[in-house]
Amino acid sequence: MNRAGCAWHLLPHDFQPCRTVYDYYAKWEKDGTTRAIHDLLRRKVREQAGRAPEPTAAIIDARVVKTSSNVPEPARATTRESVLKAVSSTSRPTRSGCCSP
Questions:
Q1: Is residue 28 within 8 Å of residue 34, measured between CB atoms?
Q2: Judging by beta carbons within 10 Å of its beta carbon (0-12, 13-18, 19+), is residue 8 exposed, middle or buried?
Q3: What distance in Å separates the CA atoms of residue 73 and residue 26, rounded to the nearest whole number?
Q4: Which of 34, 36, 87, 98 could form a disulfide with 9 if both were Cys (CB 3.0 to 4.6 A apart)?
Q5: Cβ–Cβ contacts within 10 Å for residue 99, how many?
Q6: How far, in Å, CA of 14 to CA of 12, rounded?
């Protein structure tokens, strides 16, 4: 969704109009509801698989995390929270179809 958006106008006919669905999605994205749902589902799936609820390691693609080679080493994002914040700040929901701005 972050790369190409969502074809909101292709939602099933029993859904509300695409604008209404998008408005709910945008509100939930803004207030953190979608992230909370994602995190809860991830924990449940991991527990059902017999693993720890929270991941203990992460793989970060260097093409995703933007940094500069001329920034001093301590100033770069090194903690999990700062890396996630850097990645999430570049990921924004996009509008497409009937819900274009």
A1: yes
A2: buried
A3: 36
A4: 98
A5: 21
A6: 6
Count CB neighbours of 22 within 10 A. Answer: 22
pLDDT digits (tens, 9 = 90+) for 28-47: 999 999 999 999 999 999 99
Provide the residue ranges of all domains of the chain, joining segments of one domain with +.
Answer: 13-55, 58-90
| Joined tokens for residue 64 | 């995703």
pTM attached to this predicted model? 0.49
Query: Which DSSP string do the residues of 19-80 spell out, in sequence order?
Result: HHHHHHHHHHHHHTHHHHHHHHHHHHHHHHTTS-SS-S-----TTTS---TTS-GGGS--SH
pLDDT at 57 over 70: yes
pLDDT tens-digit series, residues 69-87: 665 655 555 566 666 666 5
Report d(CA 33, CA 16) in Å as an integer: 20
What DSSP designation does 93 have?
Answer: -
